[in-house]
Amino acid sequence: MSEWKETELGDIINLKRGYDLPAGVREKGTYPIISSSGISDYNRNYKEIGPGVITGRYGTLGAFYFIVESVKYWPLNTTLFVDDFKGNDPRYIYYFLQTLSFEKFGQKSAVPGLNRNELHQITVRVPDFNRQKEIAKTLSSLDSKISLLRQQNQTLEELAQTLFKRWFVDFEFPNENGEPYKSSRGKMIDSELAEIPEGWRIGKIKDLIDIPSGYPFKSSEFTEDGKYKLITIKNVQDGYIDSRKTEMISNIPSNVKEHCFLKTGDVLISLTGNVGRVGLVCEENLLLNQRVGFCRPKNKKNNPFTYLLFRNTEVFNQINSIARGTAQANLSPIETELIEITIPCNKVLDAFSRISIPIFNLFISNNKEIQTLTQTRDTLLPKLMNGVIEIN
User: Fold this and answer.
1) In a domain, 194, yes or no
2) Global confidence as pTM
3) The domain that contains 282 carries what CATH number?
4) How far is 152 from 155, CA to CA, in rounded Å?
5) pLDDT of 53-112, one tens digit each?
């Protein structure tokens, strides 16, 4: 058994306020500037050298960022950073601080913010250095795997977007000889938008994709331990669905339509606020709430094409141009379906599906593993930090 001691936070680390650096005096460089929400810019000069742990003093509270050893950085004045680990393991401190709920200490005043002197007085319980190293190694191994999978998914998405642009924007899909169509003098025809390949046409999104919206679930139906997670506009992020913070529901109204029971691979779009954000569903037992649209291709195998179409910059800009609202933007699914697009011939769409579906299947598989590893880490974190479980 390891030895644990009870003390004050200020006895195991020293928190210091970050440094002022107005945007007007910054010089572009290679050293990261860390704000309360993470890396916000890069500067020619630096103030600190890693290892470091940074958290928001104002703005985003409760988020922590770890700077590895020897990395030079500039913590902004909106942050607090550890400038003295007092003989404790830096990466352990990074994980340990995440269990202290710093955000609740920032809610004591009218303007949310953290007072480092108050934080230093928090009573804490920590193990000896060797056990700190073991705990940090266990948690960081999970984070390393998560990071690797996220990097793989970023590469997969970049590959898919490159293929989409090459095929459906540059018209360089393979011809019958496997050569790039347009640059191999494939026949192009005039259209009301621009020249397009022979056999293609100008149509509307609704020719390929329907966009039904979600069901208006009532808050009185929410439970803490429901079977289904409710996906709202806040869960639809740029390129993914974040289901970590959702309402739960068990009893489903009888008039909820089938498309509201989401399946892996479904493509969702936000219809209010940050309209046009598109995410890919990578788990089961999700329900679609109102103001979130389901981008449902008429042919299921065109799911990757559907996702990439709505992620395309030109389509995204058109979507934002038709959004209405004063307090916040609102997007009509019906008007979205009427946006004009170039519709490829079925032969090219089928060929694209054969190439892109394996890419998306791997993307989804990686994302499911990320969710499993994240849940494992989040379950282990508090139990390791309070000594409920020991590492053998």
Assistant:
1) no
2) 0.88
3) 3.90.220.20
4) 5
5) 999 988 777 789 999 999 999 999 999 999 999 999 999 999 999 999 887 776 555 555
